[in-house]
Amino acid sequence: MQEGLLPFPLKYPTIIGLSFSGIVVKVGSSVARFKLGDRVVTNSAGTIRNDSRFGAYQKYALTTQELIAKIGDEPFETAASVSNLYGDASALFLHFHLEKPSQELRSEHRAEKILIWGASSSFGAYATQLAAEAGYAVVGVASAQNIELVQSFGAAQFVDRKSPAVFQEVVAMGPYKAVLAAADTAHDQVVIGSILVAQGGGSFISTMGLRPGVILPSGVRCQFHQFIDDYLDLKNEEFTKWLWWQYLENAVLSKKLVLFPVQVVGGLSGVQAAWDLLKQGKVSGQRLLIAPNVE
């Protein structure tokens, strides 16, 4: 908030935080799918709704049953990272209109490539897995030290984000049916814009939107979406049920997902320290978590 990086306004006082896991301790009268004692993971809409009751960084938080999945005996810490998958699914299947994963891979997708920039981020990790599971060939861009991690997510090809020839290498592997910037900088967006120009133009989705000062070439557009809104839109009701109550639950309970590495940095008092680590660029290939009940 202090850095002005949140792409939506907040009113104060507020409690931020979107993804969390825990045990159901109370249910509303209209809740039929979950009961007391269920171990769940959720992604709350509280921050973008400016409703502090839904913020993740507190010991008890509200959420809506549409955005909850059961996690069985999966540890809360690893399950919390999985909820990022909702945004990946929205980007890939609702906005890029890619085919969803199914029991049988469609071989024709193997010739279609998806570019995931920032594939070693938590968002990029699950985007890579979803796209690969749906049968697409994923080209993952990340720092060289994370090549094995990205390959474990199912990327068919890898490019070092810091390579002086990153533009040429990525273009040579294309063209791309979809381009997702799971984690990017202003410089990254300039490079992505040039990549799209090389294949005739188009658009890419960035999880943070167009960075300040970035001017994209003609014929290139950066998209930003509040992915959580897609799941609160009644026209996407069936997709929401599929993602949260079918795909995500099955993926967690069957342990078929390669879970993104996590590190618990402490209780609520550790939020600032966690942000400082992120800001200083000291976090790569893992997600930092806060455990509210340890203090």
Commentary on this structure:
Belongs to the zinc-containing alcohol dehydrogenase family. This protein has a six-stranded parallel sheet. Strands 1-2-3 form a three-stranded antiparallel sheet. The chain has helices at 46-49, 76-82, 85-95, 122-133, 147-152, 166-173, 186-198, 227-232, 237-253, 271-279; strands at 19-23, 39-43, 68-70, 113-117, 137-142, 157-160, 178-181, 202-206, 220-223, 262-264, 287-289. The protein has ten helices and eleven strands. The protein is globular, with a radius of gyration of 19 Å. The two termini are 24 Å apart. It folds into two domains: 19-87 and 229-259, Medium-chain alcohol dehydrogenases, catalytic domain (Quinone Oxidoreductase, Chain A, domain 1, Alpha-Beta Complex); 101-225, Rossmann fold (3-Layer(aba) Sandwich). Helices cover 32% and strands 16% of the residues.
Largest sheet: 6 strands, parallel
Percentage of residues assigned to helices: 25-40%
Please state how the strands of the largest beta sheet are arranged side by side: 6-5-4-7-8-9
End-to-end separation in angstroms reads 24 Å
Structure summary, number of beta strands: 11
Order of helices and strands: EEHEHHEHEHEHEHEEHHEHE
Q: In the residues, how many domains can be counted? A: 2
InterPro entries: ADH-like_N (IPR013154), GroES-like_sf (IPR011032), NAD(P)-bd_dom_sf (IPR036291), Trans-enoyl_RdTase-like (IPR047122)
GO molecular function: oxidoreductase activity, acting on NAD(P)H
Family: Belongs to the zinc-containing alcohol dehydrogenase family.
Protein name: Alcohol dehydrogenase-like N-terminal domain-containing protein
